[in-house]
Prior knowledge:
Elements: H1 2-16, H2 20-34, H3 39-78, E1 84-86, H4 89-97, H5 101-118, E2 124-126, H6 132-144, H7 149-178, E3 186-188, H8 196-209, H9 220-227, H10 233-247, H11 252-279, H12 281-294, E4 301-304, H13 313-332, E5 338-339, H14 350-357, H15 361-392, E6 405-407, H16 414-426, H17 431-470
Parallel strand pairs: 1-5, 1-6, 2-4, 3-4
Amino acid sequence: MNGIIHFANLIFKPIIDLGAAPIMLIVLTLLAWALGVKFSKALEGGIKLAIALTGISAIINILTTAYQAPLAAFVKSTGINLSVTDVGWAPLATITWGSPYTLFFLLLMVILNLIMLALKWTNTLDVDVFDIWHISFTALMAMYFGANLLIAIILILIIGILKIINSDLMKPTFNDLLNAPDDNPMTTTHLNYMMNPIIMLFDKIFDKIFPWLDKYDFDSAELNKRIGFWGSHFAIGCCLGVFIGLVARQDPKEILTLAFTGGVCLQLFSQIGAWFIAAVEPLSQGVTDLANKHLHGRKLNIGLDWPFIAGRAEIWAAANVLAPVMLLEALVLPGNHILPLGGIIAMGVTPALLVVTRGKIIRMIVIGAIEMPIFLWAGTLSAPFITNVAKQVGAFPAGLSAGTKIAESTKEGPIEQFLAYLVGKASTGEITFMIYALLALAAYVLLFWWYAKQMKKRNAAYAAEKAANAK
């Protein structure tokens, strides 16, 4: 096993050390070239994807940095005293990639994906290699709490199979949200979409209890039709900036700065979202040619990072409304010890909400507020593991006292963190945790099975609608 881990590190580490954008440049370029696309066109697509990822990351950083100080002022004015510091996702990625096991887990997921493609369990080729750190985080957390390597591998293989299947289930919804044709290859295996089953459950409950609220709901396109420029991305961003400024009791100058920052960020998100579509066009053509020539027309999807959907304004509208909601919930939630700051712009929460609700903003906010405690509890639970590993790999944030615990309030895969904890504890032989772990895994798989049935019904409705429009 150590030899395999060493082999994986030898192959992947020099590439991984480059960072997410260069990795995707290399992967997309070589993949498109291997599929017969002219090298210059393949390289053009790879560069566009790297630029899009860099742009999205930069804007998220601007938005998070701009809003973090006012929200911190709001926290200070309330006298909140919570012991776990929210450092955001970047330090967690650094910590996870600092483990030699991460590249081994990447190798496992690549092999799993190829096997699933060969067996026709999926039509998605996952190229989002950087975000393997989410799966690795789950395995490492299980090992921290007591699991051996084999148990951790079994756990992430189960999760890996389901998240790859989920990428196929979501594909028609992505086409609908992007107004893209059927041959658009973009989908994602990102772990944040494994919250879909729970969100779907809440969405069905919403159908039963609050169906009348849908009369007042809207998506960004509908909002534009109803109220003109007030429904534009930049106008929504400005309104949200004013909202955050008022909640944080900022002066007029700071409120206007937050408004304009929100406006420019949401407008740029919309623009950069289109870059992802342009970036994968050469690869899309290569995949289509391959499918027609060698796979008897089988359509293959490409699993990218989640931001190709970032142009939808609802993601950011819901995230900014949920930020103060999360702070208020953190104040009163029993068992929570994390102070939401670094993860306050809830990128681990809102993309899945968008997919399940298909952009209904009221549902996104209501369901997001209901599910937010799951993220806060998961952040509190994972804090000892994150803090310990951060100190081991020398990634503990400077400026924090040695006794401070760190985590992220909106870390993707909160349910998987609970599974990691239970599986780890069960591996120590404690019978109570063994029962809990088995029940939790059974519930996890069964809920996904139910969710898959709902998504297949939705996808059948999409297909019927397109067939009717084609007549």
